[in-house]
Automatic annotation (TrEMBL):
<dbReference type="InterPro" id="IPR051558">
    <property type="entry name" value="Metallophosphoesterase_PAP"/>
</dbReference>
<dbReference type="InterPro" id="IPR004843">
    <property type="entry name" value="Calcineurin-like_PHP"/>
</dbReference>
<dbReference type="InterPro" id="IPR029052">
    <property type="entry name" value="Metallo-depent_PP-like"/>
</dbReference>
<feature type="binding site">
    <location>
        <position position="253"/>
    </location>
    <ligand>
        <name>Fe cation 1</name>
    </ligand>
</feature>
<keyword id="KW-0964">Secreted</keyword>
<feature type="domain" description="Calcineurin-like phosphoesterase">
    <location>
        <begin position="45"/>
        <end position="254"/>
    </location>
</feature>
<dbReference type="InterPro" id="IPR024927">
    <property type="entry name" value="Acid_PPase"/>
</dbReference>
<keyword id="KW-0378">Hydrolase</keyword>
<feature type="binding site">
    <location>
        <position position="122"/>
    </location>
    <ligand>
        <name>Fe cation 2</name>
    </ligand>
</feature>
<keyword id="KW-0408">Iron</keyword>
<feature type="binding site">
    <location>
        <position position="51"/>
    </location>
    <ligand>
        <name>Fe cation 1</name>
    </ligand>
</feature>
<feature type="binding site">
    <location>
        <position position="251"/>
    </location>
    <ligand>
        <name>Fe cation 2</name>
    </ligand>
</feature>
<keyword id="KW-0732">Signal</keyword>
<keyword id="KW-0479">Metal-binding</keyword>
<keyword id="KW-0325">Glycoprotein</keyword>
<feature type="binding site">
    <location>
        <position position="84"/>
    </location>
    <ligand>
        <name>Fe cation 2</name>
    </ligand>
</feature>
<dbReference type="GO" id="GO:0005576">
    <property type="term" value="C:extracellular region"/>
</dbReference>
Length: 277
């Protein structure tokens, strides 16, 4: 990445963590846009986590403790969540105690009291999607920033969060025993067409030095779920055309860093051993 951009970037990998060093710029697009200022010295640090909402079980509390320590060392500016925020079936509603039990009461370290920029995963779509998207949750915990798709502009880097679950055919044609909350998504093809246009526009209009895209599902993966064909055919060409540097995802519970001689895109997923699929 650094060789392609002719600008140094220092990446330090921890479990669930990434750090990037940037300087200033911004961009414009039609997706909802939030501004995340860099530090006075132009640097920016964040942690990334996914598939985590376990009410403290399955090593969640242990990981939260380590996140707090690393977050303090790196002086993080925010946290990214790549989805599957609440297991097994999202939130039941605005007053579901799982929000406090899996989020507020788990990530209590002082260093983690920063914005949490969050997308939805397939498990979240099995619950009340509107609850996770509701601003009322932010009234309960002001760190919570969750939208379907949006942009966070952080000076020299644009983070583009993409709602990947509606792309996956099997959730519609073979949902098994699961019930998905498709309110706001149907008619599906219209939703996807509009989203792809908005993603393309946001990336084309971006003047940021670095472009990072975040989604729940894999594009490429050697893990259990493997490649997501729908994203390979529909989203990946847009990322290639717009010189995206990094795709960050969850869903496949394994540790992967994927690169290709045919693409400048790096594909990252960080997972802690012991968390169930």
């Amino acid at each position: 990445m650094a060789a392609l951009k002719y600008k140094p970037i220092h990446i330090i990998f921890y479990v669930f963590s990434l750090i990037f060093t940037f300087s200033a710029n911004s961009s414009k697009a039609e997706l909802p846009r939030l501004l995340q200022p860099a530090k006075p010295d132009g640097t920016l640090s964040f942690l990334a986590i996914g598939d985590w909402g376990r009410r403290g079980s399955y090593n969640q509390s242990d990981v939260a403790l380590q996140m707090g320590e690393i977050g303090q060392k790196l002086d993080i500016d925010f946290v990214i969540s790549t989805g599957d925020n609440f297991y097994d079936n999202g939130l039941l509603g605005l007053h579901d105690p799982a929000f406090q039990d899996s989020f507020t009461n788990i990530y209590t370290a002082a260093s983690l009291q920063k914005p949490w920029y969050t997308v939805l995963g397939n498990h979240d779509y099995r619950g009340d999607v509107g609850a996770q998207l509701s601003p009322m949750l932010r009234a309960l915990d002001n760190r919570w920033v969750c939208m379907r798709s949006f942009v966070v502009s952080a000076d020299i880097v644009d983070f583009l969060f993409v709602d990947t679950t509606p792309f996956v055919d099997k959730y519609f044609v073979q949902p098994n025993k699961h019930v998905y909350d498709w309110r706001g998504v149907l008619p599906r093809q219209t939703y996807l067409n509009n989203l792809l246009k908005e993603v393309d526009m946001a990336l084309r209009e971006s003047t940021a030095k670095w472009k990072i895209v975040i989604g729940h599902h894999t594009i490429k993966s050697a893990g259990h779920h493997g490649n997501t064909m729908e994203l390979e055919t529909q989203l990946l060409p847009i990322l290639h055309e717009n010189d995206v540097d990094l795709y960050l995802n969850g869903h496949d519970h394994c540790l992967e860093h994927i690169s290709s001689v045919d693409s400048a895109i790096y594909d990252e997923w960080r997972w802690i051993k012991g968390v169930e699929r």
